[in-house]
Design a protein that fits this description.
- The complex is a heterodimer.
- By secondary structure, chain A is mainly α.
- Chain A is 78% helix and 0% strand.
- Chain A has one domain: Helix Hairpins (Orthogonal Bundle), CATH 1.10.287.
- The longest helix of chain A is centred in the last third of the chain and has 31 residues.
- Chain B has a domain of 312 residues.
- By secondary structure, chain B is mainly alpha-helical.
- The chains are: A mainly alpha, B mainly alpha.
Chain lengths: 100, 684
């Protein structure tokens, strides 16, 4: 059996990559993808702990998370499409209308 | 039988006030008839109550008063305040003349106010309330109730003096228009009212009660610190100074002449200004605890008497002359009460029964003068109202020669003038000489007695001045050549006005004789020989022989008679025969004294100065505090919120990446903090 540290390490790397992408990337599509990365990092943790503890609850939870993530991406891309219609761009630095 | 219904006496006019106020225009004479019925009902009930009281057991050998009360409200801590009536000799006399004179004035008002149309509803409603205030004050059984009715009268005087508030004939000063005069009357008397209220607080603190029965109980008085009583009486006297227009708050009364003349008559004769004198007379058991307080009372009375009389000497306004004479006569009453109380206070300290009796005579003189003054002053004011009604002016220079056109008015006014001047056997003569005699007697006792000698001299000079200015008024109005206004006058007033004048002139002549038939037995005060409780009345009158003997064996009586006749004669020479030119004595109105009198000894200026310096100064200070401290706190608070928001808003860049970064930094910070916490708690 693969030790749990491997899973945790893997999910941490995935998480950090996602965070880096959210913070540093300028393209909204990429940012959305990075959010998916962060979510999946969490999912891996859940699945790993579920397997490790012999408890099905973690896996059930992941199914819900995947469903929520799908919805979230749908909404996110819809917003982006509308933003693109208005501004003809998906560059985050240019989408700064909602501010002081 | 009737005495249980004493409480109805003020309630009747009060109800009629509401009725007239609501439906007056639909009733005959715009509510005038209802007002008269109310006053008549009060008068009849007063007569019945007085008769029953004076023939009842309480007065003949009992405690000397009848009182009953219901609880009004209680304050935790043992204070119970009541509503009720208190009938004794003083109440009886006050009830009689207040209700009778008010009734006559109301009847007279029908004629006087006939051209006021719808506005007379307001007038009749307010005078009914005024009467309710005075009658309520008279029958009150405690100081709080007295104070309530006292304030009702203050309100009514404000409303009635300002009856013609829409007239602005000359300017904004109080002497120029009714609205300002009403305001001045209200504010100046308010100074006294505040003092009165302070007195109530002191009394409540000292006695735990405000009921007369508890306050006048000698055991209760003995148990209380004398200094507290002195403080309370001084404060109560402050109230009397305001209401009865005594020095230094006398200046509102002349300006109050801006109201209708009937209102002046009501204020001066039957209600309002009598309330202050009544308060002193009513509180006598407390006042006589200190001779010094009584000395002050007498001194204020003396100063007021001469000050007001001097200002009447050269006034050209018929009503203002009468107003000053009222102030001056009120000074006499206060003077007599002060002198009597002074002797009584010393007598009680020394256990000298003769001195206490002399003090009681002073009290009698004061109350008796109030009684007589009510009649002749009501007569004089109503007479002057009749003249003004006919001529349309108040300036005596434009009158003159009215005697032929207004026979009844001139005759009745002559009776009133002779009465106030102290012409022998007219009512003013009896009481004025009793007042002066009491003051004279007071000067013989105590270390400060010489002050009463000064007051006596002031009083005698005032008597001379009174005779002069009253007859100056009479001659200027009714004698001499016909003036400008006389030519255009309407002649004699209608009978609703002349009949009350005739009735009042009978009283103005004859009310003085009542003292020869035992009235003094009712309006005297004396400590009971066993219990020490003060009892008003319950004495056999001294009778005619005593008073005639006392007055006519006293050389000073002849002095005042001679001075009064001299004053009348000088007025005759100056204003009827014109053989002496009054201008000779005042450099044709240019002398300094004449100007001082014309400017009322600069009292209006003094009031203005005080108001500007103190009132306006305090107002400015309060304004500064409000604008800077209170507003500053509020504005500073909101400003700091706005400012911090202003500086913090730049965090909202609109860039999603920035937001994400901040969230991450926050999460990282929380995570690190949690780790540190766990490490230090010794976990893991």
């Amino acid at each position: 059996m693969i030790p749990i540290e491997f899973f945790l390490m893997f999910s941490a790397i995935l998480f950090v990559i996602g965070i880096y992408g959210i913070m540093a990337k300028n393209n909204a599509i990429v940012v959305l993808m990075c959010i998916e990365l962060v979510l999946n990092a969490a999912n891996i943790n859940l699945v790993a702990f579920a397997a490790y503890n012999g408890d099905i609850m973690g896996q059930v939870f992941v199914v819900f998370t995947v469903a929520v993530a799908a919805c979230e991406v749908a909404v996110g891309i819809a917003i982006l499409l509308n933003a693109y219609k208005m501004k003809k761009t998906t560059v985050i630095d240019d989408l700064t209308e909602l501010r002081w | 039988m009737f005495i249980e219904y004493t409480w109805l006496i003020p309630v009747i006019p009060l109800i009629f006030f509401v009725i007239i106020g609501l439906t007056g225009n639909k009733t005959p004479k715009e509510g005038g008839l209802i007002a008269i019925i109310g006053a008549l009902a009060s008068f009849v009930l007063s007569v019945l109550v007085v008769y029953e009281f004076l023939t009842g057991p309480a007065y003949n050998g009992g405690v000397g008063y009848v009182t009953d009360a219901v609880t009004w409200f209680s304050i935790p801590g043992g204070f119970t305040l009541t509503l009720g009536y208190y009938v004794d000799g003083l109440t009886c006399v006050m009830l009689m003349f207040s209700s009778l004179i008010s009734l006559l004035i109301f009847i007279y008002s029908i004629g006087y106010m006939h051209d006021q149309g719808k506005r007379s509803r307001r007038y009749f409603a307010e005078v009914s309330l005024f009467l309710a205030g005075m009658l309520g004050l008279i029958i009150s059984n405690n100081y709080l109730m007295t104070f309530v009715f006292w304030e009702i009268m203050g309100l009514c005087s404000y409303l009635l003096i300002g009856f013609w508030s829409f007239r602005h004939p000359e300017g904004d000063a109080a002497s120029d228009n009714a609205a300002s005069a009403a305001k001045k009357a209200f504010i100046v008397t308010r100074l006294g009212d505040v003092s009165f209220m302070g007195g109530l607080f002191v009394l409540l603190y000292a006695f735990q009660s405000l009921d007369y029965v508890n306050l006048f109980d000698p055991a209760a008085i003995a148990a209380v610190d004398t200094n507290l009583i002195v403080l309370a009486t001084l404060l109560l006297f402050g109230g009397a100074i305001g209401k009865s227009a005594q020095f230094p708050l006398q200046d509102w009364l002349p300006d109050a002449m801006a109201g209708p003349t009937t209102v002046s008559a009501l204020i001066h004769a039957a209600t309002m200004v009598k309330a202050g004198v009544y308060l002193v007379a009513r509180s006598y058991p407390l006042f006589v605890q200190s001779a010094d307080v009584m000395l002050l009372v007498g001194l204020i009375g003396g100063i007021t008497a001469i000050l007001a009389a001097s200002m009447a000497l050269n006034n050209m306004n018929i009503k203002k002359v009468l107003a000053y004479s009222t102030i001056s006569q009120l000074g006499y009453m206060i003077m007599a009460l002060g002198a009597g109380g002074y002797m009584m206070a010393i007598g009680m300290k020394e256990g000298n029964a003769a001195l206490i009796a002399a003090g009681a005579a002073g009290y009698t003189a004061g109350v008796f003068h109030m009684f007589n003054h009510a009649f002749f002053k009501a007569l004089l004011f109503l007479g002057s109202g009749s003249v003004i009604h006919s001529c349309g002016t108040e300036d005596m220079r434009e009158m003159g020669g009215l005697g032929k056109k207004m026979k009844w008015t001139s005759i009745t006014m002559l009776i009133g003038s002779m009465s106030i001047a102290g012409f022998p056997f007219f009512s003013g003569f009896w009481s004025k000489d009793l007042v002066l005699e009491s003051v004279m007697k007071a000067s013989e006792y105590g270390p400060e007695g010489y002050i009463f000698m000064i007051i006596w001299i002031l009083g005698v000079v005032t008597a001379f001045m009174t005779a002069f200015y009253m007859f100056r008024m009479w001659y200027m109005t009714f004698a001499g050549p016909k003036g400008h206004a006389t030519e255009h006058s309407h002649g004699e007033s209608p009978s609703t006005m002349t009949v009350p004048l005739m009735l009042l002139s009978i009283f103005a002549f004859g009310s003085g004789f009542l003292i020869l038939f035992g009235l003094d037995g009712i309006i005297t005060i004396s400590p009971d020989s066993i219990t020490g409780a003060f009892i008003v009345g319950m004495h056999e009158g001294h009778g005619a022989v005593h008073y005639i003997e006392e007055l006519f064996t006293n050389p000073y009586t002849y002095l005042t008679i001679v001075l009064a006749l001299l004053g009348i004669y000088i007025a005759y020479l100056m204003y009827s025969k014109f053989s002496v030119n009054p201008g000779k004595f005042n450099k044709e109105g240019e002398s300094r004294l004449y100007k001082a009198l014309e400017k009322r000894w600069w009292f209006p200026q003094l009031y203005d100065w005080i108001s500007w310096k103190f009132g306006y100064g305090i107002a400015k200070g309060v304004d500064y505090f409000d604008r800077n401290v209170i507003d500053g706190t509020v504005n500073g608070l909101s400003g700091s919120v706005v400012g911090s928001g202003e500086s913090a808003k730049y965090v909202q860049t609109g860039n999603v990446g920035n937001y994400a970064s901040i969230v991450m930094i926050g999460v990282a910070a929380v995570f690190v903090a949690a780790l540190v916490l766990i490490y230090y708690m010794g976990g893991m």
